[in-house]
Amino acid sequence: MSLISIRNLEVRHGLLKAVRDVSFDLAKGDVLALVGANGAGKTTLLRSIAGAHLPASGRILLGDEDLASVPSHKRIAMGIALVPEGRKLFSQMTVEENLLLGKTAGRQGNWTIDRVFDAFPNLVPRRHAKTGHLSGGEQQATAIGRALMSNPDILLLDEVSLGLSPLVVDRVYAQLQSLLTSGTTIVLVEQDLGRAMAVANRVMCMLEGRIVLDKPTRGVTRDQITEAYFGLHRTNTGRAAS
Ligand code: ATP
């Protein structure tokens, strides 16, 4: 059975349709790389799954439950955690305080503050530092750690490597690796296709709000993704083909 099902989702910013007729299912343990050019609708899709942006139409089902009227904080308690683009930490609070916020969801599970510090040892000496004083890599680790503290079933990661040096991105991905084997379902928005493909079992490409490619990573070539990314396979009507 699907863990989460997205059905004919349309999400708008004013008149702009940022997500158009998007449908897909995720099963437990799926690691989905969601790729697409700037403005393709990836962030809007993740935010609507997390309840931060309400869709204009369509449905998001967690198991059998329709999330339409479920606010974002309740979705965290139901197991959906978003690590937003730009991290959105409370800069005047310490690393530990930010991490403990994740616990307020009240979900039971293996993720404790000690386990987060084990997974992100670079945070240990920064435990009592305000997050506004941290490096980008430390902030990203705190943002991921905060999401993990809610013991999510579904972790939505929006451009975790944005603004980080390649060395720091290597570290963040090394730390993510343990997560990938833990059975958590992950949606990973990532500009670096190589990195995303290395960890995901499925890749989905968005173009102008629509899904134009959805395949197992093992069954897809880089060229196919590039074509989908740039919309090189268009029909005569000008719409991107799926
Ligand atoms: P990026 O990689 O640049 O983050 P994205 O694929 O995540 O892009 P979105 O950020 O979801 O795409 O944007 C989808 C569309 O919605 C774009 O045309 C964008 O300009 C528009 N958009 C996004 N946020 C807003 C907003 N707050 N108000 C108005 N339009 C918005």
Write a brief caption for the model.
The protein is of the alpha/beta class and 242 residues long. 31% of the residues lie in helices and 26% in strands.
What is the approximate shape?
globular
The helix count comes to 8
Q: What is the count of structural domains? A: 1
CATH architecture group name: 3-Layer(aba) Sandwich
Which topology does CATH recognise?
Rossmann fold
CATH superfamily: P-loop containing nucleotide triphosphate hydrolases
Low-confidence stretches: none
Distance between the termini: 24 Å
What proportion of the residues is helical, as a percent range? 25-40%
Class in CATH?
Alpha Beta
Radius of gyration, in Å, reads 18 Å
Query: What summary fits the major beta sheet?
Result: 6 strands, mixed
What's the order of the H and E elements?
EEEHEEHEHHHEHEHEEH
Describe the SSE topology.
Layout: E1 4-13, E2 16-26, E3 31-36, H1 42-50, E4 57-62, E5 65-66, H2 72-77, E6 80-83, H3 95-103, H4 113-119, H5 136-148, E7 154-158, H6 166-180, E8 185-189, H7 193-199, E9 202-207, E10 210-216, H8 222-230
Parallel strand pairs: 3-8, 3-9, 6-7, 7-8
Antiparallel strand pairs: 1-2, 1-4, 4-5, 9-10
The structure holds adenosine-5'-triphosphate (ATP).
Characterization of the model:
It is a single chain. With about 240 residues, the chain is of the alpha/beta class. It has one domain: P-loop containing nucleotide triphosphate hydrolases (Rossmann fold, 3-Layer(aba) Sandwich), CATH 3.40.50.300. The protein contains eight helices and ten strands. A six-stranded mixed sheet has the order 6-7-8-3-9-10, sandwiched between helices. A hairpin with a 2-residue loop joins β1 and β2. The longest helix has 15 residues. The protein starts with a strand and ends in a 12-residue tail after the last helix. The mean pLDDT is about 90. The structure holds adenosine-5'-triphosphate. Adenosine-5'-triphosphate binds next to β2 and α1.
